[in-house]
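User: Just a sanity check before I run the rest of the batch. Below are the structure tokens for the first item. I only need the designed sequence back.
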């Protein structure tokens, strides 16, 4: 068991899921994500997982595999592979496996104040999704932004995009939330944001820089940017970084150097993003490029 996989204990109102039972089931573990303002974990349990407890945060995530069962708001709930889970602050729940193979899941724990700041209408009540378990692609898209890569600390733009997308997804599951009318995107501000992202693609871009350039707050800009370009500022920045990586590889730059030049945290971070975008590793892409170049030379 590595240093970021550990057994936990505790009770009462918790920041994240814990267990106060002596000795977790064989094979049970919790892996912490890289540190940041939003706590993220991956965990596996077989049999009993944790006793009834409550969080002071939103707990949102998805089941990676297996059958995850828990009691929540007086009702049993079952989450299967690919289902999303939403546990609201101060709501009692427990956890257990639904079959002998156990279950594995990822979760993020978000302080209510962070979610409120990201809401399209910050004067509205905090959203309450009536279903704890759902197959919701909108919510899954938001969760994957935070939970796909636990090994890298979330960047500023990534975190704020996650919070905006999560706030919108949860509001969409709460029938009591006011209907949000989409404001006409501010094209000039969005274009200025895009130009700044192009210019700073090899650097860490902070939301404050985009706010200063556009005059829009980070969450409003995020929504306007997606409306105009069909993607988030963070995703746009990532793709520009990957463009740089591909150009660097074609020039013969090493993968480690390409990752540093493009603004990725390290080569592993670059590889995970490259594979997610193109379906193969940078090394495999380099090999294919080399073969293509050789083939072209042989034909000439």
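Assistant: Here's the designed sequence for the first item:
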């Amino acid at each position: 068991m590595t240093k970021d996989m550990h057994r936990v204990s505790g009770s009462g109102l918790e920041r994240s899921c814990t267990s106060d039972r002596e000795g977790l089931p064989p094979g049970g573990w919790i892996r912490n994500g890289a540190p940041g303002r939003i706590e993220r974990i991956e965990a596996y349990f077989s049999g009993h997982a944790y006793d009834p407890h409550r969080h002071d945060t939103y707990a949102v995530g998805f089941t990676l595999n297996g059958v995850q069962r828990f009691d929540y708001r007086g009702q049993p709930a079952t989450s299967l592979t690919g289902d999303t889970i939403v546990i609201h602050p101060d709501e009692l729940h427990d956890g257990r496996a639904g079959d002998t193979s156990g279950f594995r899941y990822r979760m993020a724990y978000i302080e209510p104040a962070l979610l409120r700041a990201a809401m399209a209408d910050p004067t509205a009540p905090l959203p309450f999704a009536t279903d704890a378990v759902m197959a919701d692609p909108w919510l899954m898209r938001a969760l994957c932004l935070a939970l796909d890569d636990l090994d890298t600390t979330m960047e500023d733009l990534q975190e704020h995009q996650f919070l905006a997308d999560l706030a919108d997804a949860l509001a969409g599951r709460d029938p009591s939330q006011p209907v949000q009318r989409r404001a006409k995107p501010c094209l000039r501000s969005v274009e200025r944001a895009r130009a700044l992202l192009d210019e700073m693609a090899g650097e860490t871009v902070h939301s404050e820089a985009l706010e200063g350039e556009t005059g829009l707050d980070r969450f409003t800009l995020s929504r306007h940017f997606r409306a105009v370009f069909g993607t988030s500022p963070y995703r746009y920045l990532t793709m520009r970084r990957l463009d740089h990586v591909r150009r660097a590889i074609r020039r013969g730059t090493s993968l480690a150097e390409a990752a540093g030049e493009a603004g990725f945290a390290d080569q592993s971070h670059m590889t995970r993003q490259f594979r997610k975008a193109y379906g193969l590793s940078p090394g495999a892409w380099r090999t294919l490029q080399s073969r293509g170049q050789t083939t072209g030379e042989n034909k000439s």
